[in-house]
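Re: that backbone. Tokens:
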């Protein structure tokens, strides 16, 4: 095999991989998963965060900085994941670390209408505050409540990725692209 043929094969292989990745991200919907939430902290300051995610406390020394789009929950004796798309709101009703280390008791309301008390394991709440124009991290210990914004309560421009909360807007104010409601599935 001469080197030219070899290079062509390598290029074909690379293209197959790129096409595969593009298909996976389109059909899994991963690229479109953006959560928005209204956070109220213990000082009653409100933050409207997009690209909302959390990081969890996993050990004594460091918390994992990987983004999670669910809460680690404890109910009775069972641990489970509660995904953001199922949650309407979270209101914390006990102090962090009390009585279980790294956990906090909360009243949780689901979008289905169900309500219950859960222990959530979480270190901080993170996202982009467009008012401040920067990333914000609120420690769960300082959080009073979280209200998730679902089902077309916000819209995203597919071209420039700007998030709009004015539901009466149909087109992006920057590039006139048609806006797409989030989590309308
Ligand atoms: Zn736009």
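Recovered sequence:
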């Amino acid at each position: 095999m001469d080197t030219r043929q070899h290079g062509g094969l390598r290029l074909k292989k690379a293209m197959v991989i790129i096409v595969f990745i593009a298909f996976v991200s389109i059909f899994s919907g991963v690229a479109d998963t953006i959560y928005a939430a209204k956070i109220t902290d213990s000082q009653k300051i409100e933050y409207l965060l997009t690209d909302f995610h959390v990081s969890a406390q996993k050990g004594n020394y460091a918390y994992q900085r990987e983004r999670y789009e669910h809460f680690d929950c404890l109910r009775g004796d069972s641990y489970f994941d509660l995904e953001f798309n199922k949650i309407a709101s979270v209101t914390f009703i006990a102090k962090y670390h009390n009585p279980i280390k790294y956990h906090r008791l909360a009243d949780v309301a689901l979008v289905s209408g169900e309500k219950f008390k859960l222990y959530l394991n979480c270190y901080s709440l993170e996202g982009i505050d467009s008012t401040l124009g920067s990333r914000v991290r609120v420690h769960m210990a300082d959080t009073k409540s979280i209200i998730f914004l679902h089902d077309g309560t916000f819209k995203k421009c597919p071209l420039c990725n700007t998030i709009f909360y004015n539901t009466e807007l149909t087109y992006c104010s920057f590039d006139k692209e048609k806006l797409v409601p989030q989590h309308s599935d």
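The chain has a mean pLDDT of 80. The radius of gyration is 20 Å.
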